[in-house]
Write a structure and sequence with these properties.
single chain, 159 residues, alpha+beta, Aminopeptidase, 9-stranded mixed beta sheet, binds coenzyme A
Length: 159
């Protein structure tokens, strides 16, 4: 697993197109990414021994009102490589690097049954831009109690 570099960019986009439904960029989470670069050093790619891209994860910075947080995603593993633990490795390896970079909390929009195993739980008072199913808004603290008292609308980093 290596940090994503400029040469990986279009291959990662193609992987995401393969793994997500068409129109993924219409999702509200993409509005938070528009015009904001991903977090340097945290986005990673996983390649097999032949150099074929098997999985990728990216992170963006967001704010909940004024409070900074990481937005995890998209994360995807090629359909031919799913179920081998690559998704877990991408998530855990990158998250382990987030706290040393100064990040205290991470959130995502995803399936609770998958993300519960990584310590993500429902963020009841954190509002993603509509339309987002509130049951899919999940968070994990990277520092003790880092989500306590954090409430409000998720905003673009530069808004
Ligand atoms: C979700 C994804 C990244 C997981 O990657 P992976 O390498 O297959 O994951 P792992 O091998 O670490 O874990 C596989 C386990 O997760 C489970 N799992 C995968 N997706 C799941 C989901 N949406 N809900 C619940 N469990 C899920 C599998 O059933 C498997 O369970 P097991 O360990 O009990 O057998 C991958 O399936 C993928 O790219 N899916 C399409 C894109 C996507 O949905 N991305 C996430 C957006 S929220």
């Amino acid at each position: 697993m290596t940090p994503e570099g400029p040469a990986d960019h279009w291959e990662v986009e193609a992987l995401y197109d393969t793994c997500f439904a068409p129109g993924r960029e219409a999702l509200s989470s993409y509005r938070l990414r528009d015009g904001v670069p991903p977090v340097a050093g945290l986005s990673h790619v996983a390649r097999d021994s032949g150099g074929i891209l098997a999985g990728a994860i990216r992170y963006w910075p967001v704010r909940i009102d004024a409070t900074p947080a990481l937005l995890l995603g998209p994360v995807a593993v090629h359909p031919t490589r799913q179920g081998e633990g690559l998704g877990a490795a991408l998530i855990e390896t990158s998250l382990a690097q987030a706290a040393p970079l100064g990040w205290e909390r991470v959130m995502l929009v995803g399936d609770a049954p998958y993300y519960n195993r990584f310590g993500f739980t429902l963020l009841q008072d954190v509002e993603m831009p509509p339309p987002t199913n509130p049951a899919r808004v999940l968070g994990r603290a990277l520092a003790e109690n880092a989500w306590a008292g954090v409430t409000g609308k998720v905003r673009r980093w530069y808004d």
